[in-house]
């Protein structure tokens, strides 16, 4: 079967491509390389470079390939950036997704897995958060993803599209062999930024310590990227068994505070880098922890690598291996 992976040169996308190839899928990657990395794409997959804004690119992509399904990662992911430039997020996440679905429908591609986010929930009323929790995004990033979910729902009702929207919590970690890791530009996530601070002997800026949590810092559910891509494999198999629209949280079901994460990074790295408390970022929720009961029950999902120690150790090994991030002496 032939699968289109949009954003397949990005962090999660590149892991997804590798995992699909292991399952003997034929993989076509669509990526503009604006924020992705060509060298991260497994050379067994076919990389097509183009932007989903471009109608001619989309027409050619679908005319040359008979896709059996789409895994849609392409989009911007920074909550903070979305508060500064909301237009980028509605254009790049919402409008391009609509164009992609239009071309999928015109070419009778009826199965899509969408990279959504726990950001659709906003500041939760109760935790852990299940899929039926109210949707009240705190930032344009979360709102743009929620809008795409709504498009998918209408396309399912009107055109018979089948989809799975996977609401990620905090994707993190690196491959066990140290060859693939998290390398966003801009990078906004706590684990890679803290590790860069450690390796460069710089201070780390912690955004806020006055949240309504036990230690005053944000609490997040961290899901290892290897577990995250496995959820996509299970979701894809479901779409070949059952038609419809489905929503799943993808998280470990346990939360860690920013201070806990930083303490473990210091322990694993052996570097006691300084931490500077700064102002909160706009749009940050206090606590985001998944209730993953539905995906566990429906898909048999069982995280294997999402304990915090494995996450930090694999991420540290990858960051340490990068030639431009060697510790200063």
Description:
With 329 residues, this protein is of the alpha/beta class. Helix content is 39%, strand content 19%. The chain has ten helices and 13 strands. It has helices spanning 11-22, 55-63, 79-84, 86-106, 140-159, 190-200, 225-239, 258-269, 293-299, 308-321; strands at residues 2-6, 26-31, 46-49, 69-72, 111-117, 162-168, 170-172, 204-207, 219-224, 245-250, 255-257, 275-278, 287-288. The longest helix has 21 residues, at 86-106. The termini are far apart. The relative contact order is 0.15. Residues 325-329 have low confidence and may be disordered.
What's the helix count? 10
Kindly state the mean pLDDT as a whole number?
Answer: 94
Low-confidence stretches: 325-329
Annotation, overall tally of beta strands: 13
Report on the biggest sheet.
7 strands, parallel
**Secondary-structure content class:** alpha/beta
Order of SSEs: EHEEHEHHEHEEHEEHEEHEEHH
Order of neighbouring strands in the sheet with most strands: 3-2-1-4-5-6-10
Shape: globular
Alpha-carbon distance between the termini?
A: 51 Å
Describe the structure in brief.
With 329 residues, this protein is an alpha/beta fold. It has helices at 11-22, 55-63, 79-84, 86-106, 140-159, 190-200, 225-239, 258-269, 293-299, 308-321; strands spanning 2-6, 26-31, 46-49, 69-72, 111-117, 162-168, 170-172, 204-207, 219-224, 245-250, 255-257, 275-278, 287-288. The termini are far apart.
């Amino acid at each position: 079967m032939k699968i289109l992976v949009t954003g397949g040169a990005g962090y999660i996308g590149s892991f997804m491509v590798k995992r699909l190839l292991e399952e003997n899928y034929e993989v076509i990657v669509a990526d503009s390389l604006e924020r992705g990395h060509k060298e991260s794409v497994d050379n067994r997959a076919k990389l097509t470079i183009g932007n989903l804004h471009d109608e001619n690119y989309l027409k050619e992509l679908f005319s040359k390939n008979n896709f059996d399904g789409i895994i849609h990662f392409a989009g911007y992911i920074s909550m903070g950036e979305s508060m500064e430039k909301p237009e980028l997020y509605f254009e790049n996440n919402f409008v391009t997704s609509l164009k992609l679905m239009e071309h999928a429908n015109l070419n009778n591609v009826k199965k899509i897995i969408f990279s959504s986010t726990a950001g659709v929930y906003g500041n939760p009323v109760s935790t852990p958060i299940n899929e039926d929790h109210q949707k009240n995004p705190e930032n344009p990033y979360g709102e743009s993803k929620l809008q795409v979910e709504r498009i998918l729902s209408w396309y399912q009702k009107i055109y018979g599209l089948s989809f799975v929207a996977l609401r990620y919590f905090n994707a993190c970690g690196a491959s066990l062999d140290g060859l693939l890791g998290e390398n966003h530009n801009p990078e906004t996530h706590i684990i890679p930024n803290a590790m860069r601070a450690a390796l460069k002997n710089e201070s780390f800026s912690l955004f806020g310590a006055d949240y309504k949590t036990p230690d005053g810092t944000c609490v997040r559910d961290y899901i290892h990227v290897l577990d995250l891509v496995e959820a996509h494999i299970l979701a894809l198999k479901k779409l070949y068994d059952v038609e419809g629209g489905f929503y799943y949280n993808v998280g470990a079901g346990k939360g860690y505070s920013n201070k806990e994460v930083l303490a473990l990074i210091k322990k694993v790295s052996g570097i006691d880098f300084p931490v500077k408390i700064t102002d909160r970022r706009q749009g940050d929720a206090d606590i985001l922890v998944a209730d993953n009961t539905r995906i566990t029950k429906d898909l048999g999902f069982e995280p294997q690598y999402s304990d915090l120690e494995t996450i930090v150790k694999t991420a540290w090994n990858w960051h340490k291996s990068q030639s431009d991030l060697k510790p200063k002496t």
